[in-house]
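Our consortium's second objective concerns turning raw sequence data into structural hypotheses that experimental partners can test. To show how far this objective has progressed, the report includes one record in full. It was chosen at random from the queue rather than selected for favorable results. The single chain below, 695 residues long, was entered without modification.
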Amino acid sequence: MSTEREGPISPPFEAGGRNGDLPAYVSNGLIGLRVREVPLVRGMALVNGVVGRDPERRIESAAASPYPLAGDIACNGVWMSDEPWAVSDLVQSYDFSSAELTSRFVLALGGRRVEVEVLTFASRTAPTLVLQETTLQVDAACDVALRAIIDPAGLRGRVVRRRTSTPGEPEPACDGSMLWEPDGALSTAGLALHTELPGAAERELLGRDWDTAGPLRTEYRLRATAGARIVFRQMAALVPSLMHQRPDEEAVRRVARGKATGFDELRRRNRKAWADLWEGRIVVHGASRDHQALIDAAFFYLNASTHVASPAATSIFGLATWHDYNYYFGHVMWDIDAFCLPPLALLQPPAARSLLAFRSRGLAAAVGNARLSDRAGLQFPWEAAPLSGEEATPGAGSGAAHEDHGSLHVARAFSQFADITGDRELLLSEAWPVLSGVADWLVSRVTLTPRGAEFLRATGPAEVPEPPDNDAFSLMGAHDVLKRAIRTAEALGKAVPESWRQTLRRLYLPVRSDGAIASHDDFRIDEPKGATPSPLAGLFPLDFPAAPEQRQQTLQLFLDHWRDYVGAPMFPALYGVWAAMAGDRQLALELFEEGYAAYDHGRFHQCLEYRLDHTDSEVPAGPFFANLGGLLLGLLFGYPGLQVDGGDPAGWPRRPVVLPAGWTAIEVKRLWVRGRPARLVARHGAAQAELTFTD
């Protein structure tokens, strides 16, 4: 059995206009672009950690930066931007193996036919850089002009500083730089541009230094002959002020470094970096080609949206946004810690580490958040603002007030990462403070009653107006975090507070008369949002050690009502795992289709937040990380039965392997475990999966 039988399956090409679908999403984890069908037409750009004031909610929110790779083409003096109807024959393709987007179109300008091909990518090895190469051919001799444009028009904010010269240098280091400040003056982004067009007869920087607030524009002019290839290259650096106090000056340095390295070498390095990432490809033997393609897309988007250089973790849509949707405001939520970090810890540990670094940076905010609620320890925000790390839930903030399980996932993520990597220094310096702080918070959060340690007025994943008592999902998560905190204290030689042990022993869990775990006190399956399978999420991925009969009864109760929940975001991606845990292979395959594949829509497999047939689906939005992260979590941990702890990784697989109907095995050629390459094979019917080191 081998994963070498084929590379990743890229999505099919797209012809014509989007007709309302989301544009292509290109990212490296520091920069995210929405690229239109004609990439020279301005799309949208986000830089990790660049925030502003939301115009409606007035809260800290991810803010767009000027699009760095816009441009224009003229033939015999007629510009594409003046005659957009001159564009035809749109075709766009996305190579997931290299993260390169290729767009082709035809222009009818100035009495000439111009064939255009545009290559766009975001560099993984030089993460401040995004690059674009435009190749064009004309059918007859003509005068051609090309422009590179960085224009902030239409964005909320202002140009603080703009330069086309380099102070103190006889020649400019690049075409120009810009310091952009989004509305609210909370942060800035630095941009710098380099362009090149070999053989151009004339080059002009349009708008000199006196134009202090205008766009950056570079224009080239040349005489083209019939059939000759003209190659125009753009390279832009984007730097957030979160990583440099004078980011425009650092952007100049970064783009100059890229210029010295060269476009071709940067492209080669990027392709090599992606080839290395794809060593972790998750191959499902026996799955249909369509299903394998969706798995490859989930792998691609999660890895593309995370990077060791990411200073502010990532939001629930990564760095993808479009102008018609901004509900989550770029905030960092528990879904990232719960669904995305565990797969990344195995696939791309440095990127997972950067997600945790954001939480470590927000420890002071978590301390203050707990104190404001008269609690001890650490209570992480429900919606953490990218820059400050503080609570940023809009309006009255009902989620922040009552959905207390978020901190549990943060603590669990630190513990899992330390277990997977074996990084004892991180365990001591970062994981332990978080685990111990959240354990202290838990003790102060529960109420001791004759029934035990109860979670009163705690909303779980089913967001209902009136918080119930004893949300099972929160209690099952609390059980896992307290166990991890106690284990970690013992491993580090720390004193274990008796209050932790007492709370763990006395945790109350609501159970129905039929033996199934209830979602909360006085639970009814037919209540509003009653089908939300939060107790199943307590079984996996939270690994609550329910007795076999209780586990089976709980699985059966909620699996019988999957139709009442599927279509919503987040948990449906896990339904296939739960059906497999119940031993129903046919249902597991059906729920892979209904709970994940049916969310796939539009160009290039962008898994949506809601299925389009769901009543709450207003605007298609994706790629949605809780869904695609949940899929990868199930493939790497759920079906193989991995339960990560501080022991020998060979002992992490702890359940017989049951896979959806037709699937014969899940195989990953290379994961990273304890700093070493490891191979995972989960064969259907095996007593347990195999996790073995390959070095």
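The partners drew two points from this record. The chain has 16 helices and 24 strands. The chain has a mean pLDDT of 96. Both points have been shared with the crystallography group to help prioritize constructs.
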